[in-house]
Structure formats: structure tokens, C-alpha cells
């Protein structure tokens, strides 16, 4: 278990699942949660390859922060299929201030544990991470 600068540990499973998403494309997305009591980041939920952006959005709680990784498939202007790995920092306006602070202070350290993130997206409400946002950031 890697110990983060913020005092937050990262469960080995977090990196393992990310590597599987990156190299084998085993998952469409991974949602990570900080267990405040244990002071560690854990895998809360994984999305199967057949799942979509809608499933990712529906998996994020309305009033709690989360980190998520999303393997986004898209077509370039030349109609070439591509994919990008997004890191999403989900910090809804309705989350408790303490919750937001813990996620904000641990984010960079956690993100560094996941080797292969291509684009970071920060969202405070669902409109900031709708499909159009992913499309425009991916190209």
C-alpha cells in the first residue's frame, strides 16, 4: 500500500484495476472512493466494457466527491476510432466542505499512482461532465 503525502493510503487494487483498464480494456470505468475512517482510497465500483458514459454519470453520488477513470471511445474528425483515458475529479457543489477538501488535497498524489491518465476533467455538477465535454476534450 502506497502512503500518500496527504496521509491518504492507496489500496493496491486501485492501481491493479487501472492497469487492467489501460492494458486489457477490461473495464469501461472505475469509481474510486476515499474511506475517511481508514484514510485510504478504494475501488468503489467498476463499469463493464459494454457500459457507457451514462452509466458512469449515474454511478456518481449527487452529494459526495469521488474520483473516476473513464476509458472514452470516440471517432476523430477523419472518422478514425480512438480512445482516451480520462481522470474525473467529481466534486459536487452539494458535497460537505470537509469531503471536498479531502478529495482536493489527495487528488494529485492519487492521480500520480495511475500511470497512463491522458486527460483530467474536474466537474462540480453533471453538466460539466456530459458527453459533449468528453468529446471536446478528447480531440
Describe the structure.
The chain is of the alpha/beta class and 139 residues long. It is built from 4 helices and 7 strands. The chain has a 7-stranded mixed beta sheet. Strand 1 and strand 2 (9-10) form a beta hairpin. The protein is globular, with a radius of gyration of 14 Å. The N and C termini lie far apart (35 Å). Residues 1-5 have low confidence and may be disordered. Residues 5-139 form the ADF-H domain. One of its GO terms (biological process) is actin filament organization. InterPro entries: ADF-H, ADF-H/Gelsolin-like_dom_sf, ADF/Cofilin.
Unreliable residue stretches = 1-5
The tally of helices reads: 4
Average pLDDT confidence is 93
Order of helices and strands: EEHEEHEEHEH
Please state the CA-atom Rg, rounded to the nearest Å: 14 Å
Query: Termini distance?
Result: 35 Å
Strand order of the largest sheet: 1-2-4-3-5-6-7
Q: Which bin fits the share of residues in helices? A: 25-40%
Summing up helix and strand content along with how strands pair, one would put the structural category as: alpha/beta
Q: Could you give the count of β-strands? A: 7
Protein topology:
Elements: E1 2-3, E2 9-10, H1 12-24, E3 29-35, E4 40-47, H2 53-59, E5 66-75, E6 81-90, H3 97-113, E7 119-123, H4 131-138
Parallel strand pairs: 2-4, 6-7
Antiparallel strand pairs: 1-2, 3-4, 3-5, 5-6
Amino acid at each position: 500500500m502506497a502512503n500518500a503525502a496527504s496521509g491518504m493510503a492507496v489500496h493496491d487494487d486501485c492501481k491493479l484495476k487501472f492497469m487492467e483498464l489501460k492494458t486489457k480494456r477490461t473495464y469501461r470505468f472505475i469509481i474510486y472512493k476515499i474511506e475517511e475512517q481508514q484514510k485510504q482510497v478504494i475501488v468503489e465500483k467498476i463499469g463493464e466494457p459494454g457500459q457507457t458514459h451514462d452509466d458512469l454519470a449515474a454511478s456518481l453520488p449527487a452529494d459526495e466527491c469521488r474520483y473516476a477513470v473513464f476509458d472514452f471511445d470516440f471517432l476523430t474528425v477523419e472518422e478514425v476510432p480512438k480512445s482516451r483515458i480520462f481522470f474525473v475529479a467529481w466534486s459536487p457543489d452539494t458535497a460537505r466542505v470537509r469531503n471536498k477538501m479531502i478529495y482536493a488535497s489527495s487528488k494529485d498524489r492519487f492521480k500520480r499512482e495511475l500511470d497512463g491518465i491522458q486527460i483530467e476533467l474536474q466537474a462540480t455538477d453533471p453538466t460539466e461532465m456530459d458527453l459533449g465535454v468528453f468529446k471536446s476534450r478528447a480531440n
